[in-house]
Amino acid sequence: MELEGPADGWVESTSGRSFEDRYRVLASELASGVAIVSARHRGRDHAVTVTGWLDVSWDPPTMAVSLFDEARICEAVEGSGTWVLSVLARDQEGVATWLASPGNPVEGLLNTVAFRRAESSGAPVIDRCLAWFEVRTEQVHSAATHRIVIGRVVAMGRGRAPGDARQAEQDPLVHWSRSFHGLR
Questions:
Q1: Angle, CA 69 vertex, CA 65 and CA 75 arms, to 5°
Q2: Other beta carbons less than 10 A from residue 36's beta carbon
Q3: What is the pLDDT of residue 25?
Q4: What's the pTM?
Q5: CA-CA-CA-CA torsion for 145, 52, 105, 133, nearest 10 degrees?
Q6: What was the pLDDT predicted at 170?
Q7: Which residues of the chain register pLDDT less than 50?
Q8: Burial of 81 (C-beta count, 10 Å sphere; 0-12/13-18/19+)
Q9: What is the dihedral of CA 94, 89, 150, 114, to 10 degrees?
Q10: Contact 182, 174 (CB under 8 A)
Q11: What letter would DSSP give residue 28?
């Protein structure tokens, strides 16, 4: 049933700078899964924490990620042509926090993060992640301060051994209200 009166909110044209600030507050209410995007480019590993990613299609398997266009990972993903998205478990908050920190070193970025390499691209796959997807870039679109990278999944797997009893009970890492959470 429709209620009387307009929806309570703000209109861009009359709100100025505070409109963007209000957007940030409201957008923090969007709960998102947490993942790491990684790529091997020019002999170096690059990785960053992301919450702006999605499964686009199952046929063919396609994923997308939003990357800040001035970040090193953007150049690495575009330059390498193939990248990995590792979906993090609740117990990997430390990895998410480290790789979300601005100004991380280029050399030794993953020295304290356990990972293996994807077979075809050599990109890092975060160990013990819930799932990982190796993605070959097919399209890149500019959107405001970000680039939306869309690609075809060329390999995938779990970051835990099939017999690992902890695999079935893993809680995903979720970002909501400017902090990390689990679902349970």
A1: 85
A2: 28
A3: 84
A4: 0.89
A5: -130
A6: 80
A7: none
A8: middle
A9: 50
A10: yes
A11: T
